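Exercise: predict the fold of this chain.
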Amino acid sequence: MRYILLSFFIISSSAFSKRPENEIPEYGGQHQSSLSRDPENSKDATDKAWKFLQKGDLDTTIKRFNQAWLLDGKNHEAYWGFGIICGKRAIKGENPEENFKKSIEYLNKSIGMALHPSVNLLTDLGVSTLNYGGYLDEHGKKEASKNKLKDADQVFSKAAKIDSSYPSLYEHWSYTLFHLCDYSGAKNKKDAATALGVKFPPEYTRELLEKGK
């Protein structure tokens, strides 16, 4: 079965288009974050970035995260945002191999910088790791894919210890375990996600039932 989570929208690994530096994380290395930190205005920039992300305006989102980073290189939310944007670009087919790697790198950096990493942040790392595993599988790299899926499983396990009531965590954990052929575990996480309001694609439910027999 294909990776239901992704429904792979990736068009081609050559679908990369050159972007202006303000649409590349950390301005593509063309600027340094300020030595005199401005946490207040940096936070204001990340607050605006999250709002644009909710609207689906990824290009404006990355510009605001870049502003946040420029004002305060220790603002972990800026790196979190970079990780999300890279992951979304990868799924859309924009230089997927590199963007998946950068997504995971930035999300790990954000976790390392955060005073108290949230379940949302760890779940985003788990999702990017799962998606990268799916990408590798689609491109015939079975062993590398399996390793990434195992990594995702570990991340979701850590996230659950922070907050066991986050729906997206169990949703994506279920997909991860399914692709690791742990159908019992996948059903367990699916049931937990469903109880928290997640609606799964009917084809996933059918295939999980079939595999679990």
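Check your answer against the key: Residues 68 and 144 are 34 Å apart (CA to CA).
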